[in-house]
Structure formats: structure tokens, C-alpha cells
Amino acid sequence: MKAREFDAKDVDSETEDGSNPIDDNMISTLEDAPSDPVEDELVGFIDGLNIDAQVELVAIAWLGRGDYTREDWQDLVRQASEAHSNHTGRYLLEMPLLADYIEQGLDMLGFSCADVEADRL
Hints:
- By secondary structure, the protein is mainly alpha-helical.
- It has one domain.
- Helix content is about 55%, strand content about 0%.
- It has seven helices and no strands.
- The N and C termini lie close together (about 10 Å).
- It holds the Pfam family DUF3775.
């Protein structure tokens, strides 16, 4: 859900310094800013995962991109493990469709985000 929130962000628009968020249709809530708390939260969460979880999250995102099949899972995990760095959160957030990739990858592995999202909405 946080990845979806991050994906929905847009580049910073130019509003007048004295502008009122209500008059601007609250557009600033969907703008990407240098100190974006959603980005900081996601990076902190991902980087706080243990290495195995980070590796599997990267593998899930790769699987969800559509370049691999479920049968490639073990190979994907091995590749993600070999490519692992201390910048996993930043790496994943550079994927423009991260939320879609994670959802698709989980679906390919037989998991669904629908129940979790329904409980949080």
C-alpha cells in the first residue's frame, strides 16, 4: 500500500509561495518533494528487513515485471542474493511500477494483497 502511495506521487509543481493547499485542490499531497515522508518510510522499512527478506522482495519485484515465471523463483532469489547491496530500498523505489510488480509477483507465487488492503482501508 505504501508503494502505491509512493507510485502516485508526481513531480513538484510550481505553486506560489503564499498559495493555500485547499485552493490548490490539495495537489501538494501528491507531489514528490525532497523530504518525502512516504519515501523515507518505505526506504527505512525495506532497509530494516533482514537480508533474506530484502533479497526475496527484490526477487518478487523482478518476477512481477514479467521477465520470469514462477518456475524461475529459486534462480531469481539466487540472482537477487548475488546482487544484494546496502541500498535495497532506494533500488526498489527507482522502479516506476514497484507496487504493480510486487502485487503481480506475489500473485504469481499464489499470494494476494487484497485481504491485507481490505483490512487497512
